[in-house]
């Protein structure tokens, strides 16, 4: 377990206050430079703020976002705290995701590497469809912790009854989730700063839990030690130096370790072909090392001269993933044109690309009830459902629940070369 870094995402329905919340966190933890504050103050006046800082402008950077007052793209922000109330502090990476349904694809991108999801709910409106969709996607992506922040409490007179009603409403919905390991509820006002960094003792004396920042600093995120999980090295590049004296016979296989650790001298297998050999040496930017662990970027030299290409996977013989030509996966559909049986796409999984045909759309998730509707004709934009794919070439895969990197993929529209869907592998097709 490490408390050094926490990646978290904010999500929820449009206008729930996600960007304002992030701005409040940055402002109240003194992470904003004076020139940034001056720029935001000027922009706030231009938008009719009458002198009040519009903290959402600290994250909404695109011109279209500022004009419309919404988040369109995923905005990443970085900050660190020294800790409070005895906590050691942390470094944070925040992904501020858009709320509009048409930008659900961006939310999937922003949440894909998160350790914790902050779902905002407007205290006036309660749990909306997009709030449910984002909570379900967070669960589907395997995010281990979820924090439900009931925002805009200042607009409901800081009502304890209203907060508790929303807690009950969301709890009834989330009972059907393949849920996060822990869910917390915090009443806040991002605009006024209540229970974000500072406790709202006067306005909400009935709330006795942590502030949002206290929770973010204290939540425990368990990381598997690299030596405790199977090693996975997708080959990104075959290194053959040319014109370098003394390196004429050098051949290395470069990539970023997706999981686990590798040591020089140990036996490995290259998939999907299945050739076995040993690691002769492991090179890094800083020189040769005896062992490497995820997420290091390395170049591996092998003891035998075997045929290894980009997209193949190096692992240990006793820890091999499945090598499949057919698979089942949960897919978040991101394209205007629907996904239908018979559709042809490119599939990119780690560093390997193949062609894929949709054999069958198995079901469609109803985001209101979380029930799976069998036998749909298609997946439309922002739909989530389970599909069966047939591949042109074998892929070495793990279930997404075991390994996010080797268990995920994207589907690419061959005509426009745009990302059409994001998938989480359940396993080989039955």
Number of domains: 3
CATH topology of the largest domain, which one?
Answer: Rossmann fold
Question: What is the number of E strands?
Answer: 23
Indicate the overall shape.
Answer: globular
Order of helices and strands: EHHHEEHEHEHEHEEEEEEEEEEEEEEEEE
Q: CATH-wise, what's the superfamily of the largest domain?
A: P-loop containing nucleotide triphosphate hydrolases
Round the Cα radius of gyration to an integer and report it: 24 Å
Main sheet specs: 8 strands, antiparallel
* Number of discrete helical segments: 7
Helix amount: 10-25%
Distance between termini?
A: 36 Å
The helix/strand class is: alpha+beta
Question: β content, as a range?
Answer: 25-35%
Under CATH at level 1, the class of the largest domain stands as Alpha Beta
What's the architecture of the largest domain in CATH terms?
Answer: 3-Layer(aba) Sandwich
* Average residue-wise pLDDT: 85
Contiguous runs where pLDDT drops below 50 for at least 5 residues: 61-73
In short:
This protein is α+β, with helices and mostly antiparallel strands and 430 residues long. It has seven helices and 23 strands.
Overview of the structural elements:
With 430 residues, the protein is of the alpha+beta class. The chain has three domains: 5-218, P-loop containing nucleotide triphosphate hydrolases (Rossmann fold); 226-319, Elongation Factor Tu (Ef-tu), domain 3; 322-428, Translation factors (Elongation Factor Tu (Ef-tu), domain 3), CATH 2.40.30. The protein is 17% helix and 34% strand. It contains seven helices and 23 strands. The chain has helices spanning 18-28, 34-46, 63-68, 104-111, 129-140, 160-174, 212-218, and strands spanning 5-12, 75-80, 91-96, 116-122, 145-151, 182-187, 233-234, 237-239, 252-256, 261-263, 267-271, 275-284, 287-289, 291-293, 297-302, 313-315, 322-333, 344-349, 352-365, 372-374, 384-397, 408-412, 419-428. The strands form four sheets. Strands 7, 8, 9, 11, 12, 13, 15 and 16 form an eight-stranded antiparallel sheet that branches. A hairpin with a 6-residue loop joins strand 19 and strand 20. Residues 61-73 have low confidence and may be disordered.
């Amino acid at each position: 377990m490490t408390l050094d870094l926490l990646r978290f995402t904010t999500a929820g329905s449009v206008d729930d206050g996600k960007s304002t919340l992030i701005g409040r966190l940055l402002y109240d933890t003194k992470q904003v430079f004076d020139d940034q504050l001056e720029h935001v103050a000027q922009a706030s006046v231009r938008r009719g703020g009458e002198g009040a800082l519009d903290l959402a402008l600290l994250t909404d950077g695109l011109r279209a976002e500022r004009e419309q007052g919404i988040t369109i793209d995923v905005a990443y922000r970085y900050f660190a705290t020294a800790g409070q109330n005895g906590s050691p502090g942390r470094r944070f990476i925040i992904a501020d995701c858009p709320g509009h349904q048409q930008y659900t694809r961006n939310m999937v991108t922003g949440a894909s590497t998160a350790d914790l999801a902050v779902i905002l709910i407007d205290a006036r409106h309660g749990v909306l469809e997009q709030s449910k969709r984002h909570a379900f996607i967070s669960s589907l992506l395997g995010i281990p912790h979820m924090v439900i922040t009931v925002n805009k409490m200042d607009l409901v007179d800081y009502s304890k009854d209203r907060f508790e009603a929303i807690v009950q409403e969301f709890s009834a919905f989330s009972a059907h989730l393949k849920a996060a390991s822990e869910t917390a509820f915090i009443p806040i006002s991002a605009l006024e700063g209540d229970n974000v960094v500072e406790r709202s003792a006067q306005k909400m004396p009935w709330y006795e839990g942590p502030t949002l920042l206290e929770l973010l600093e204290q939540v425990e995120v368990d990381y598997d030690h690299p030596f405790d999980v199977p090693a996975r090295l997708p080959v990104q590049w075959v290194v053959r130096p040319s014109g370098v004296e003394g390196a004429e016979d050098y051949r290395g296989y470069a990539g970023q370790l997706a999981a686990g650790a590798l040591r020089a001298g140990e036996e490995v297998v290259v998939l999907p072909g299945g050739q076995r050999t040993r690691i002769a040496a492991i090179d890094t930017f800083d020189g040769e090392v005896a062992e490497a662990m995820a997420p290091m970027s390395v170049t591996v030299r092998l003891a035998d001269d075997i045929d290894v290409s980009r997209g193949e996977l190096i692992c240990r013989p006793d820890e091999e993933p499945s090598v499949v030509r057919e698979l089942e996966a949960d897919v978040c559909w991101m394209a205007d044109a629907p996904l239908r049986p018979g559709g042809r796409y490119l599939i990119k999984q780690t560093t390997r690309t193949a062609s894929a045909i949709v054999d069958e759309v198995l079901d469609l998730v109803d985001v209101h009830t979380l029930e799976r509707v069998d036998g749909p004709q298609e997946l439309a934009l922002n739909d989530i459902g389970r599909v069966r794919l047939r591949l042109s070439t074998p892929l070495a895969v793990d279930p997404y629940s075991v390994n996010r990197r080797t268990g995920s993929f994207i589907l690419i529209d061959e005509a426009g070369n745009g990302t059409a869907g994001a998938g989480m592998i359940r396993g080989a097709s039955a």
